[in-house]
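Researcher: Structure for this, please.
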Amino acid sequence: MHFSATLGLSAALINLASAKGCKQQPVGANPSGNAIGAPSLNQFVPAGKPFEITWTPTTQGRISINLLRGPSTNVKPIHCIVENHRNTGNFSWTPSTSLEPDVTHYGIQILVDGTGQYQYST
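Model: Predicted structure, token format:
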């Protein structure tokens, strides 16, 4: 996922302890379930225009989605895109035009509300 007035993406398999992100925190050592389809690695996501985040819903209940930033070894949530969303497999999001252009260090994380099960975009 790239921002150049698009958004760049890195996958990360780390625990996110501090956050400006969603209330739900990730739980467990490894991501699982709710595989993310879009945005994908190197996909351009235009700032200021609607973009459809998609995933394969494999868990019950509601989910939250974080916008992440940083290298894969130290990615951090920077914004909660949505909380308490039905796990339908899609969410329409309009990225802010104030996001810094970056082609390598943005990503998203889906969190299952109540359990903390999580998944990263690739």
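Researcher: Any notable elements?
Model: The radius of gyration is 13 Å. DSSP finds no helices and eight strands in the chain.
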